[in-house]
Design goal:
Order of helices and strands: HEHEEHE
Helix content: 25-40%
Strand order of the largest sheet: 1-4-2-3
Number of strands: 4
Number of helices: 3
Radius of gyration: 14 Å
Strand content: 15-25%
Amino acid sequence: MSTPLGLGMTHGYFSGLADGRTLRDDIRGYYFEMVEKINRQWWDKAGLLKEPLRQDGIFELLVQQDGTIVSIRILQGTGSVEGDRLLAEIIRNASPLPALPSTYPLSIFQAPLRIKAPSYL
């Protein structure tokens, strides 16, 4: 289960709220690259979790032009205080993310992320 599909099923995975459909074209590619980097960090550390994520969670990131994460906020917890803490730490450790595209006009990108709870088949 070391493939992205297997890791996502056993540990959960980060995704966008609307799968990028509401993003401008120039930021959509960046957003998916950002999510991929955070997922790799999550899957490397997910085995540290002592209790499973009980439900999907939502995090909000504020990212500077250079890719530095300046803020992480939990909008909806996963039902696991330990899980929420570990997820926030993993997101923080993914910084810096790739730099924002030069066509992005704002100094901060507000990026909502959903963590999908693992599938228990």
